[in-house]
Design a protein that fits this description.
CATH architecture: Up-down Bundle
CATH class: Mainly Alpha
Largest sheet: none
Structural class: mainly alpha
Number of domains: 1
Number of strands: 0
Order of helices and strands: HHHHHHHHHH
CATH topology: Four Helix Bundle (Hemerythrin (Met), subunit A)
Distance between the termini: 55 Å
Radius of gyration: 24 Å
Length: 233
């Protein structure tokens, strides 16, 4: 495992700097516009609006990531906000689509299980290491990164199943793809769980306790305290 020190992790910007970024604005815009389109689709039972919402999600999801990297606005909050927004929009798209195409509800349910549970769990594992988002997980484990967060891994995660659901009247192509995704995530979960724990500095209290327990430190501490005691007297 390579070093996982990513610039900017230890010294996160101020609260305002983390929240008020162009990247987070793009995420918010895609979330609001996407959900509005999905709601219109459900009320009017119109697939066109559902696909418009999906297009908003896919296009602005690329935009917010590009803004974060190019403007140096990557933050822990932004990464988790993006992950959560992805889950909300994908869930809305598939639930609306399933309401209008109940014959696909089994494969939709299975896909949402892998995306909302297994993939969500894995997407938040970056917090255990000194990296700002899953995009840097190659610093922790290259194989898991290639399977989940490389450009190809991201495209296969939602795009492949969505295309198969839309192209084929049968649920089986999408079902096989979804089962494959579940298998990949099960493998990645097992691999991540066995990765070495990140080397993080001990809390200040533990560091002070460890120094006090070193041979001679107790006497030294007492010696340092004596003048202060005498001064106080």
């Amino acid at each position: 495992m390579t070093s996982t020190n990513t610039p900017g992790y230890e010294a996160q910007p101020s609260l305002g700097s983390q929240l008020l970024t162009w990247a987070n604005l793009a995420t918010t815009v895609r979330l609001v516009l996407g959900l509005a389109a999905f709601c219109v689709a459900l009320v009017q039972r119109d697939d066109t609006w559902n696909f418009i919402g999906l297009a908003i999600y896919w296009s602005l999801d690329i935009v917010d990531g590009q803004l974060a990297r190019r403007l140096n606005q990557e933050t822990l909050f932004g990464a988790q906000y993006d992950i959560l927004a992805d889950r909300i929009q994908v869930a809305f798209f598939y639930l609306v689509y399933g309401a209008m195409h109940p014959e696909k509800i089994v494969v939709i349910t299975l896909f949402l299980l892998q995306f909302m549970v297994f993939d969500h769990y894995l997407s938040n594992q970056f917090i255990r290491w000194r990296i700002l988002s899953p995009n840097y997980f190659y610093r922790v484990d290259q194989r898991v990164f290639d399977l989940l967060w490389s450009p190809l891994g991201k495209a296969l995660n939602t795009g492949m199943v969505t295309i198969l659901i839309l192209l084929f009247s049968s649920i089986w192509p999408a079902m096989i793809a979804t089962l494959a995704l579940i298998g990949v995530r099960a493998y990645c979960m097992a691999r991540v769980m066995t990765l070495p724990a990140p080397c993080l500095p001990a809390p200040p209290q533990e560091q002070a306790r460890a120094r006090a327990d070193e041979p001679g430190m107790g006497e030294h501490a007492g010696t340092l305290a004596s003048p202060a005691s005498e001064s106080g007297a």
